[in-house]
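pipeline/complex-builder :: batch 7 item 3
reading input block
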Amino acid sequence: MELVLNEQQAMLAETAERLAAASGGPPRARALRDAGQDLDTDAWSAVIRAGWLGTVVAERHGGLGLGLFELALTLEQAGRRILMTPLAEAAAAAFALSRVGTEESALALAALLDGARLIVPATRPSAWGLGGGLRDGDTLDGVIPFVSFAPSADVFLLATDAIVCLLDRTAPGVAIEVKAQVDGARASMVRFTKAAPAAVLARGDPARSLTAALRDVLVLAAGAELLGVAAGAHGLTLDHIKLRQQFGKPIGSFQVLQHRAVDTFIDVELNRSLLFRVAAAFDAGTHHPAMISAVKARTSRAALTATRTALQMHGALGYTDAHDIGLYYKRALALAARYGGELEHTARFSELTLA
Amino acid sequence: MGWDNTTLFVDDDAADRAFRAEVRDWVAANVPSELCNRSTRIDPPALKPWHRKLFERGWIAPHWPKEYGGMGATLTQQIILFEEIARVGAPTPYPHGLNFIGPLIIEVGTPAQKQKHLPPILTGETTWCQGYSEVGAGSDLASLQASAALDGDHFVVNGHKVWTTNGHFADWMFALLRTDPDATPRHAGISMLLIDLKSPGVSVRPIQTIKGDAEFAEEFFVDVRVPRQNLLGPLNEGWRVANRLLGSERFTTGHPRNAAVLLNKAREVAELTGTRRAPGFLHKLASLEIDLLAFSAYYRHAASLHGRGKAPASMAPVIKIVGGELGQRASELLVEAAGPFGAQAEDLSIGNHAVNPAAEMFEMRRVTVGSGAVEIQRNIIAKRMLGLPTA
């Protein structure tokens, strides 16, 4: 269903669709992967110029003064076209920086928004087990795994329950070990050995709540991209089954395939309503963290189901590297794994609502 | 932590909030407690006093225009009334008169039909049933055979209708009947007739459901004479008349609250039986609650578009499919939560109310079949929304 948009949102949605179509697409994502790159520099320049990094940042801090609703509008389109840029990471970092209000955070935010320095969050990738071993004092020791765009970043926004700080990528005691993901994205193990923060932004309770908010933004952002991935794969699949002929008919005329396509359609429709309602609630200050988990659990499940259905309907083509549909499946896998998938977020939802 | 799965994403503005509070207070003071949270079916006669109270308060037909005795209410107000009545576990009046034939008579009925039929629908004096299905015409409704032949100023009706909810309680039936046996396509030869079920030649037999109660009936018509003025809409255009109906009525029959109530019962029953300690239970429950949250978001989104006249053609089938299947899954979890009590025929007592898990589950079998099976709804979406070719 169409979203109920105001004039500004409608314009943003249209711009996002155009930018993602012009600067994204599976062929570019595949070429980047083959070149061992995860950041499409041309697309990224276009995103910076559009000002989307400051979507969730107040105008007085140099942002667009909008909300997660508008960020989700852009990220759904990014997901649909597999746009390989750190939009979600940078927008989340900008959101967190804008909430700190120190001189250091203001300077960092300004540099991030105008594209001078890329700041990406480094925070534990899962609620369970991973990345818990960070000790902080005057210097930091420990590991944060699965940091997206780490080699391209200038600065890490390190966020834990105990500390939020800025750390230069090239600072002494910071080491990066890159792990390629199936979709061509790269998630890195960032190791800190007596590393000195460039600026400490929060400690204690303020750090805990800022990290929680940052993680909610990252989780919802991944959900928005997953929605786009599912919708994109569904669109390609509809095109395919309307054209592909077997037994003298388009295979899309067979009821078995029609009903599976309808189930994907329904899943995407429900997730779009869910995502944008939750984003609007967050922007209105009435969100419940359980809603964010619901979005990630459901968009992860739906994107994986939709892309698997898509592969099946593409037959042998779906098993090839050359066809675009496989890239959607891999993108769904990578985004579902990021910051917790269906299992983790269903459990978190349960703890937050049912305990 | 303040999670109420029955009011997710409520869109009330200030006036709506005031209306909701007014309805809530009135319902609390006026609802007959013996009708609330019943695990067994409430037949139309037992519902009449409650119907009458709602009528006297002016809230029986929120969606009807004021000139016909309705409230001319917004869709949000209609939903609020439904929600606040359902909140206390009170029954909603049956839809066949108020939601199905009433609005059709208002739209296409003659002045005489309006005058005769609308007032007793409002007061609850007459009970209506819908005569569509036949043994050979279920999902393929256009193949129906029961006929009405014009003979002077009467139709002569012959045939058999079945799966008629409340047929054995109804005073009147609105029926789709074949008036032109040679028409092509088949649905071009169908008309809608209003039939007094006390007419000579009508016999009605109740049918016991899988749940154990007599919810529906079958009717046999042998040379039943129906006055020509009981034709609703033009002759041979009954199919088009019937199809005017789908849409906003989905907002009450397909409300997410049905699943929410079942999930809350599942949670209570799981506490009682200890099933809550099974590791998989909370995950299943959370997974269904997440689906309910998504459906609630869709439902409110659809209502806001419908209010702007911009709801897509897929809205009604999506609400039907998701609401029905989610309700079914919730009722299945309720039975699982009941553990060894899952197959018990008699009620379980929880606090001051009774739950019958198996009966709840049996009842939910109806929702994916009645008024257009979910498979037919999927066909509709495939064709109209996805543009997939016909086989």
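note: The beta strands of chain B are 128-131, 147-151, 154-165, 172-178, 190-196, 202-207, 216-227, 231-232, 348-350, 353-355.
queue -> next item
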